[in-house]
Amino acid sequence: MKKLLLLPLSLLLFSCYEQERNCKDFKTGKFRFEIEIDGQKKVTNFERNETIEIEDFEGKIDTSSIRWINDCEYILEKLHPKNRQEKSAIHMKILNTTGKTYTFEFSKVGDTQKQKGTVTKID
């Protein structure tokens, strides 16, 4: 009987677990994002302040404006899009944080297909 009472109590405790989300720690700074594309590791470095993100990918510099929705979500829009696809705004959402890294999901605004990634803060 005692074991039956412990089961609901332990389930209740584990269901209350919430992943860490110290999003404010990642609003500004220098970051690195690594992804594998066609079997090759690609690295993007970027620096972000409250309103601007400057990205360096394979020697190409790009600047985007940032509009924060809340501490963990923001919208990115390229300041100088080169084509129609680059004009699309990107919705970014920090899912959880651990130390100097955060896991996020992103998609074009209004799109239901989301992708995930992990970013490391380097400064």
Automatic annotation (TrEMBL):
The keyword Isomerase applies. Keywords: Isomerase. It comes from the Bacteria. GO terms for molecular function: isomerase activity. This is DNA topoisomerase IV. It comes from Flavobacterium kingsejongi.
